[in-house]
């Protein structure tokens, strides 16, 4: 019986709560930005970060306007990926990543690290090919 309850909570309730949050928080407008920030958090095992870190490391965050940035971070906090760090200095935006995120999404994090490694390799090949041509 306990395993059936656990399965129900894990698959049915979680799936419906995610759908609810997507609808309620309007994530669809900021979906790419939320995914990009999440991928960066996973790929680099980020435990805490500032808005400056996001600007430096997430291209889509850098090019997004202030409203999109704010809504994307509200979405990530709403999904329990991170929480605002109240100890940040006044006027600074800072968040702490919930440790469970790295545990739950370990396989996705590894896949994202591999994808980024492959892209770096492809870029290096193109640069080397162009250098040989000159």
Summary keywords:
134 residues, mainly alpha, Arc Repressor Mutant, subunit A, three-stranded antiparallel beta sheet, 7 helices, 3 strands, globular
TL;DR?
The protein is mainly alpha-helical and 134 residues long.
Level-2 CATH architecture: Orthogonal Bundle
Question: Going across the major beta sheet, what is the strand order?
Answer: 1-3-2
CATH topology: Arc Repressor Mutant, subunit A
- Assign the structural class, choosing from mainly alpha, mainly beta, alpha/beta, alpha+beta, or little secondary structure: mainly alpha
Unreliable stretches, pLDDT < 50, 5 or more residues? Answer: none
- Helix tally equals 7
- Report on the biggest sheet: 3 strands, antiparallel
Number of strands: 3
Radius of gyration: 18 Å
The ordered H/E elements are HHEHHHEEHH
Query: Helical content, roughly?
Result: over 70%
Overall shape: it is globular
How many structural domains does the protein architecture include?
A: 1
Terminal residue distance: 70 Å
Q: What is the CATH class name?
A: Mainly Alpha
Can you describe this structure?
This protein has 134 residues and is mostly helical. The chain has a single domain (28-133), classed as Orthogonal Bundle (Arc Repressor Mutant, subunit A). The protein contains 7 helices and 3 strands, in the order ααβαααββαα. The protein has a 3-stranded antiparallel β-sheet. Helix 2 crosses helix 5 (66-78) and helix 2 (27-43) crosses helix 7 (106-133). The protein is globular, with a radius of gyration of 18 Å.
């Amino acid at each position: 019986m306990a395993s059936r309850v656990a399965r129900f909570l894990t698959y049915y309730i979680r799936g419906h709560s995610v759908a609810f949050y997507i609808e309620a928080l309007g994530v669809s407008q900021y979906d790419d930005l939320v995914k990009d920030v999440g991928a960066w958090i996973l790929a680099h095992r980020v435990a805490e970060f500032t808005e400056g870190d996001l600007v430096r490391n997430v291209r889509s965050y850098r090019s997004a306007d202030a409203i999109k940035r704010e809504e994307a971070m509200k979405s990530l906090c709403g999904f329990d990926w991170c929480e605002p760090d109240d100890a940040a200095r006044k006027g600074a935006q800072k968040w702490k990543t919930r440790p469970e995120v790295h545990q739950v999404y370990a396989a996705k994090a590894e896949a994202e690290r591999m994808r980024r490694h492959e892209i770096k390799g492809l870029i290096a090949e193109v640069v080397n090919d162009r250098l040989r041509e000159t």
